[in-house]
Design brief:
single chain; alpha+beta; Nucleotide Exchange Factor Grpe, Chain A, domain 2; 8 strands; GrpE_head; GrpE; cytoplasm
Amino acid sequence: MTKKKKDISEKEEMVKDQVEDTIDQAIEEVEDNNAEKGKQEDGETLSEEELLKEEVQKEKDKFLRLFAEFENYKKRTSKERLELFKTANQEVMTALLPVLDDFDRALNEIRKTEDKNLLQGVELIHNKFKETLKSKGLEPVEVKEGDTFDADIHEAITQIPAPSDKLKGKIVDVVEQGYKLGERIIRYPKVVTGK
């Protein structure tokens, strides 16, 4: 059992224990209230009907609070499960990124040869692999030469003197493609910036 699943199981057990404790407390309070029926409140004796109405109102309030707490728990656990699935998918995608990089490099080398059948076959496999990853939510981070460098999106490897004035502070070269899974960047693009 993974740590996250174990944590979710422990949280479920804690909430179940809390629910049982709350129910036990409610039962004890009802029994205590029944024992105190004859006591006076503000100098007047309450009728049995008024006492029962008051108890019912208290129990309704407790029930509503307990129900709201349980609904919050259900929302929280479903959100955690979704996050767990996304994280599991992210680990697989991150592991496949070096394979995709090697595939891109191999395809570039095959393009230099004159064997068109080999090129066509490898391109078909490459496209199928990329489309499969795309269908699972993997998308490349769009970055090209001349884009403005943003530390939140890009990872600068080095700075070189800018080949032209318009490339100062901008991206000069993309060394490694970045990818995102949904809205989350799982690998930042490695770039060279101009100074």
